[in-house]
Every structure is written in C-alpha cells, then in structure tokens.
Amino acid sequence: MSSIGLLHSPGRSGLSLVALGLPVLLFVIISLISPSFLSVQNLSNVNAQITALLIIALGQMIVAISGGIDLSVGSVLSLTSTLLVSVDPTLSIPTVLLVGVCVGLVNGVGVAIFTVHPLVMTLASMTFLQGLALLILPVPGGSIPGFLEALVDFSFLGLPAAFYWCLTFVLLAAFLLRATKFGMRLFAVGANAQNAARNGVNVTFYKILSYVLCSTSAVMAGMYLSARVASADATMGASFALESVTAVALGGVQLAGGVGSVPGVIAGTITLGLMTNGMNLIGVSPFVRASATGVLLLIAISLQPRKAIGA
Amino acid sequence: MLVLETGADPSMEGPVPAVEFVEITKRFGSTMALDTVSIKGWAGSVHAITGENGAGKSTLMNLLAGVHQPDAGCISINGTPLKLENPKAARIAGISTIFQELTLLPNLTVAENMFLGREPLKTAVVDRVKMRELAEEALARLGSQISVDAFCGDLSVGEQQMVEIAKGITADAQIFILDEPTAALNTPEVEKLAELISRMKSEGKLIFYISHRLDEIFRFCDEVSVLKDGKYVATSRVSEIDRDQLVSLMVGRELGELFPVRSTSRDQAKALLNISAIAISDNTPEVSFSLSRGEILGLGGLEGQGQRSIIRSIAGIEAFSKGEIRKTSRETDIAVPITPTIVEVAKAGIGFVPEDRKTEGLYLTLSIAKNMALGMLRELSVWRRARVRSDHIETLLHKMRVVAASANQEVGALSGGNQQKIMIGRWLASNVDVLLIEEPTRGVDVGAKVEIYNLLREFADAGGAVLITSSELTELLGLCDRILVVRGGALVAEFEGTEATEEEILHAALSSTAENYNKKEEVA
Fold first, then answer.
1. Which of A201, B124, B224, B355 could pair with B438 as two cysteines, CB 3.0-4.6 Å apart?
2. Of the spans B261-265, B440-444, B491-495, which averages the highest pLDDT?
C-alpha cells in the first residue's frame, strides 16, 4: 500500500524533484565554474549536441512506457546515415523511413507476437543492423543530400534549426501521450498488459506500434545528425542505445513500463548534454565523464520514487 | 438428493432469458473444466453461481466475458445465440465483468479506466471533458464520492470495485458478472455493495454472482445454480432451499465424509509453538496463541483481516516489530526462541506452504523429484554434492498419492491438487514438525482435498502440528481442532472445532466495526 502512495505524487509521469532539478543544478554549477558556458554560441552548441539524443530518447520513452526497451536505435541511426549517402537523393528520405518502419515492425513482432525478450530481440537487430551499415559504407564519408543540410542549418527568429527540430518532436510526442487514444492505451499496456487486454485494448498492436515509432525516431535522429556533420558514418550511432536508455531513466521513466513523461525525458537528455558540454568546458577527460555519468545515473535513480505498477 | 426445477417462474420475468448457457463444454488441456452445462439467467434478478473451488464457476463466467471461448455449446443473449470472441465483443453485447482480480490500471485515472478501450473521441483526440462528465454521472448514480481524476492505484479495493461497476453502467451493460466481489471488502464496503446490487436489480439488470459464501448467496441472490467438478448440479430459487441442502449440493457428499476423524492425541499442555504478543507494527494489535503437538489450528475470518500477516510473520517472511516466537526443540524438548528469518525458521523445523503455489512455492519448470529434493537438501552445506534420493521420493509420492507419470515430470504440468501435495511433500521430506499452510486446498478438486486433509491429519497424529489459514468455513469446521477468528489483525474469538458453528464464526468475523474498534483500544 505504501508503494502505491508513492505513485500518488508523480502520478504516471514519474516526474520528481530529482528528475527536474538535476539539469537545473548542473546548469547553475557549470555556469559558476565556466564563464564561457552561458554564451549564446555555447548554449546553441549544447542544443545542437543533444538534438539527436532527445529525438531518440522520446522514441525510447514510448517503448519504455509500453514495458519494452529498444537497443537497436543506435544502429538504425547509423544505417540511416549510410543509406542517405548511398541511394539516389530523391529516394533517400522514403528509403530511410521505410527501413525505420521495417525495423520497428520486426522488433515489435518479435517482442509482441513471438514473445522474444525485448532486450534479446533488439540486441539481435542492433547487431545485425550495425553489420549491415558497415557493409554499405565501410569508410566514413559521402555527401548528404543538399536539402537535408539546409533543413538543419537555418535560423528563424534568432533561434537555430536544432531548436525547432527539438520543438517539433517534443510537441509530437507530448500530443501522442496526452491527447490521443494511443497514449492512454500505451500506459495501460505498460502497467498491466493482461488487464489492458481484458478492457478491449489490442495489446499486440500497441506494442508493435511503439517499436515502429521508436525506430522512426531513430531514423529522424539519423537524418539530423548526418546532415549536421554533412557526412555519413556507419558507427555514428553506436553510443545512442545506452545513452537514450540513460536519458530516459534519468527522466523518471520506469523501464518496467507504465510510467514516463515528455518533460522527464527532456530533463534527462539535458542532464546528459550538460555533463558532456560542462566537462568539456572545464577540461575534464571524457573517460572521467563516462564514469561520472554512471555514478550520476545510479544516484539519480536511487533518489527517484519507484514502483512496480500493478503490484 | 433433491430434485430441483431449472429456471424461474416465466410468468414473472418474461419468457426469454437474458442469458442462456446451452450445453457448454470447455476443456483446458486434459482437464474438463465445464461439461455440458446449461443455465438460464433472467433480467432483473441476481443469480448466484456457486460450487467448490475448481467447480468451474469462474470458467463459465470467463466464457460469458469473452475471455475464453466454449469448445461446444453456445451462449444466447436475449434469445439470440452469440459468439463472444473477445472481451470487446462481450462488452458490445452488454456484458460487464467485475473480475475477482480487478482489471483497473493503477496508472490511469478513474475516468480513463472507465473508458479504456472505448474512449470518446473528438476528431483524433480523446475527448477528456466528455469522458470526465460521463464518468462523474455514472459514479453519481451509484452515490459515490470518488474523484474521477484520482489514479486507480490510490483507491481502496472497494472503491475500485465501485469504479468497475460504474464502468459497466457507462457501457450501458445489462448483464453484470460479479466474481467473488466481497473477497477483499471490509464490512461497510460489503453494505455498500449490497445497496448497489439491489439498485442494479431494480433497474432490470441481470447479475451473476459468483461466490461460495452461503450467507451472501442467501442475502443477495434470487436464484442459485450449483456446479461441481465442471458439471451442472441444480438450479433453485434461493427462497426454496436451505443451507444444508445447498451445502450438500455443492460438496456432493456429507461433510463428515470429507474430513478425517479428529485426533485424540492432541496434548494441550504440550505447546510445540508458542507465539507471544507479536505485532506487525506499533499500531497493530498484539497476537498470542500456542500450537500443541498433534493439533491442527485454523485462522479464520474475512479475507484481508490479517491472517496472512500472522502466519507469514511466524514463517519469517514478514517482519514483526515486537513479540517472540518459541518452539520446542525436537532434540532437547525445551522451548527456545526462534530468530524470525526464513532460514532460521526452516532450520527450527517449521515448514511454510504459501497460498500462491505457482509464484511463491514451486519451481514449475523443474521435475517433481527436484522440487521435493530441495526440501531434503536444506540441511546440507552449500558445497556438498546434491544427491536426489529417488527411492525416498518415490515412497513419499506413493504415500501422498500424487498422480504423475514419473518423478521426472515437470511440476508445472500437474493439477492444482497434485502441486499442493508436492508443496507439502517437500516439507515432509525435510522432516519438519510444524507446518504453516495458507489456504491448504485453494484451487484443488474435491478428491485431492480429501487426500490433503488426510495427509495433514496423519502429520498431526504423528506428533506434528499444523497451522492453517482458510477462507472456507467448511474447511475450518471440518478439519481443525481449534479455530481462531481474526478481525482487524486481532484474535477476536476462539472455538473448539467440534463445537463451533458456521454462524458463530461468521458472527465473530463480521461483528460491527465499533466493537472491533473497542477491541483494538483494549489491546492498546
């Protein structure tokens, strides 16, 4: 009963003071230590650095709320990158989107119909797709279609393109979760799939859809990142699988399913972004940063309210 | 046996039954869950479906709820045969099920839960305003104060049940299935439910009331149908039957045949286990009692009154804040205090058989022999070679009359009764002298029940002692030498098994909350 009490305050958002306060705290600390942090140039750098991760983390959040996990997002990002420079520019966007949807379908069908554990299922597709990406483009390079580069390199009302990319996906994800039937049913499936089914929710469909949306988000992140660096790399996304899970967990999303929110994921992503940027500015070794992130994750998670929904 | 007419007086309720089960048959693997069962339910009435555990009550209702489909036979709603392929189809047919284990999602609000699966839409967006309005309306009709914005995980079980019923009302259901609705309710909540049921009845709904509690059947219901071992036994108007007749229909034999003869070897002076003033926390009542050699002691009362906590604190699973448990040692015959941890309790020769065999008790994918051996190996050190004494196990299996192909069969494939025997057998194999058993025959058919009762009696007669919790009055009355009634975490009454009656136990279990409160104060 007391564990249910914990659910009372953050509801199903998983939001807590820790999740929301951590990026603010980091922001204050870094700006005190490093004067150059608060420059417009640097802040817009941070924004650009976290955009791809934010897009993927939003997709990861959807899968996590359904009770799953998707490790293949990084490989999908990499594969997107290699395809963008390998197929005819006019076909590039449809191709990568189709690939994204297919990967999501395979993951989703494996998990929801063949009941493969999501960790194993997406680990398999992650490994497979990484190999495929390296086969397509063994050496980094190539040129990204011009219109894509234009899409990531504009500024409007004094705000950079990265901001609008973030805004688009944040609004989209928030709309899906809060306003649609999909959002409500996703939470239901994640909390207790059997009971959701008893209420007439097609659990299989919603699980598969969540993986499709997640893979598609990875394709979007791949397009953004490739266009930003103006070149392709078959290992570009390698770090994203674990970083997206970290961001999601920092943001109060529970990997057991049924709990999570867009503001939480934004906070988690910014926290990770600030760790990288801040330590860069202060001149800390990236290896130290990696270790520090691990410790931070553990501390943040231990301070958050947790509950196995449905218990 | 009585011969009873089927169905009610058609002149009163109209000629077409709201629900008719026609020769329904359902198998699960090799188990015949329902065997050509036919029952009629009339609009504006409460129809009890009763029978022992495993009689097929829930299976029948799951067919009506669209959770399972019959292998043969059909279900007619208002005279039209319908195929209820899934829960959604059942809902569209006007059937609302309030499952025993409630199906509300803890992370959705009351309003969301009530409309999950049929959300009102405004273009592509869920119309939350309308959803809240309709939810409020339905709850208001039930006279409920529950906020539609509360998360269901924060509600009490009684409130959740209310929400489930309100959900049926918003779905415009004509047929309600209440599956053991009082299992988790306290007394005021039961009163509220009674009110609800009569209101639904007056609105012309048909209510199927699944229960094996006699007093509820006689209080709430108009008709009662009895199932036994998956077969239809009889239907009668409640006003035309008495308790004894109903019990003999349910059990299919006289109560006396079900239970072994009580022992004479009980030695009240020789306490094997002594529980003195244990309390789960500082504001729960203290509980003291002792368990004698040769005795079977039962903890009764309504469900959720603290029986579980008491037996589990003795088993070392739940911690208690004060008090002491002493057990007479086998070797020295001196009562020594026991450290209440699972390992120490087992070492002291106390075995615990949890209520939920599947998740807490057995290793379903391991063989019978391995499951049993885990009890015997308990006393070995970690590095000793784990030999499975197959001869010993075979003897035990034979003695317990476990029906299995061989000792190598997976436990998950066995029937509930055989699984329960394995659980008990595991402790017998490890040579304990006290058994703590939660609901010893839950989900077990009548034949296996008798064998389990005999097994427990033999164990007690051989110098052991057994403590059980049970929500079945017949079991408490028939099996136990002594019965303690638990209410609000306190022991409120004690009965000798030979002298107690159902009414006395129920009265003690149900007495008013005010009285209950005084008891608590006394203890404090």
1. B355
2. B491-495
Query: d(Cα B491, Cα B288) in Å, to the nearest integer?
Result: 8
CB contact under 8 A, A198 and B112: no
Instruction: Read off the pLDDT band of B514 (50, 70, 90).
Output: very low
Angle of helix A262-282 relative to helix A17-33, nearest 10 degrees? 20
A71 and chain B: CB distance < 8 Å anywhere?
no
Q: Indicate whether B195 and B55 sit together in one domain.
A: yes
Spatial contact of B372 and B399, defined as CB atoms under 8 Å apart:
no
The CA-CA-CA angle for residues B427, B52, B186, to 5°, reads: 85
User: Does A251 score more than 70 pLDDT?
Assistant: yes
CA dihedral defined by A221, A224, A228, A231, rounded to 10 degrees? 80
Assign A286 a pLDDT band (cuts: 50, 70, 90): confident
- The verdict on B211 and B246 lying in the same domain is yes
- Give the domain extent around B327: 255-349+433-444+470-524
Which residues in B411-450 belong to E strands, given as ranges?
A: 434-438
How far apart, in whole angstroms, are the C-alpha atoms of residue B204 and residue B206? 7
Predicted confidence (pLDDT) at residue A130 exceeds the cutoff of 90: yes
DSSP alpha helices (H): ranges in B439-512?
Answer: 446-461, 473-479, 502-510
Coil vs helix vs strand at B218: helix
Residues 163-182 of A with CB under 8 A from B: 179-181
Using CB atoms, which residue from A197, A201, A258 is nearest to B107?
A: A258
More confident residue, A303 or A172: A172
Torsion of CA B78, B79, B80, B85, to 10 degrees: 60
